């Protein structure tokens, strides 16, 4: 079973870990979080991530980071060099929950579940307006509302 490491801008990683533990209190997965402070350099953040990796059981690690190209994901990529790990960016709550549900899968399959869970958790949700109620114009621009 792969360990899971959440790496994000502070305090997101800890908040995601708290939500994960709330929803899956009985999960026997090894999960840790690294909150990268706003003052962190790439080197200091990578050292934080490396320390967290050393604290996890040996074996495979799935690292879930927040934004691709930001310091937390760059630090994760630097820290996993030489470790059996995969890094997935764009972490969200549905992604974390999916990973916890399928934590016993091999790492490659877990990566697929993480990406699918993250994507499927993102959707546009709109409430349709009530019937027979006029929709207000978004602006006073007469070109956008020629019937006025």
UniProtKB/TrEMBL annotation:
What SUPFAM superfamilies does its record include?
A: PTS system fructose IIA component-like (SSF53062)
List every stretch annotated Disordered.
124-148
* GO molecular function annotation: transferase activity
Query: An example Gene Ontology cellular component term from the record?
Result: membrane
The lineage's top-level taxon is: Bacteria
Write out the entry's keywords from A to Z: Transferase
**Which processes are annotated in GO (biological process)?**
phosphoenolpyruvate-dependent sugar phosphotransferase system
UniProt xrefs under Pfam families: EIIA-man
Point to the regions of Basic and acidic residues compositional bias.
Answer: 138-148
- Report if keyword Protease is assigned: no
| PTS EIIA type-4 domain sequence ranges | 1-122
**PANTHER family, sorted:** PTS PERMEASE-RELATED-RELATED, PTS SYSTEM MANNOSE-SPECIFIC EIIAB COMPONENT-RELATED
What is the name of the protein in this document?
A: PTS fructose transporter subunit IIA
The root-end lineage is: Bacteria, Pseudomonadati, Pseudomonadota, Betaproteobacteria, Burkholderiales
């Amino acid at each position: 079973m792969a360990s899971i490491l959440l790496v994000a801008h502070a305090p997101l990683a800890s908040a995601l870990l708290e939500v994960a533990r709330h929803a899956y209190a009985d999960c026997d997965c090894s999960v840790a979080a690294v909150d990268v402070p706003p003052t962190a350099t790439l080197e200091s953040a990578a050292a934080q991530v490396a320390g967290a990796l050393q604290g996890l059981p040996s074996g495979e690690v799935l690292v879930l980071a927040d934004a691709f190209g930001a310091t937390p994901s760059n630090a994760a990529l630097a820290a996993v060099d030489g470790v059996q790990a995969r890094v997935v960016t764009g972490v969200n709550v549905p992604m974390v929950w999916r990973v916890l549900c399928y934590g016993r899968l091999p790492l490659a399959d877990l990566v697929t579940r993480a990406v699918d869970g993250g994507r499927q958790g993102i959707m546009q949700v709109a409430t349709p307006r009530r019937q027979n109620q006029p929709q207000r114009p978004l602006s006073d621009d007469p070109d956008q509302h020629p019937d006025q």
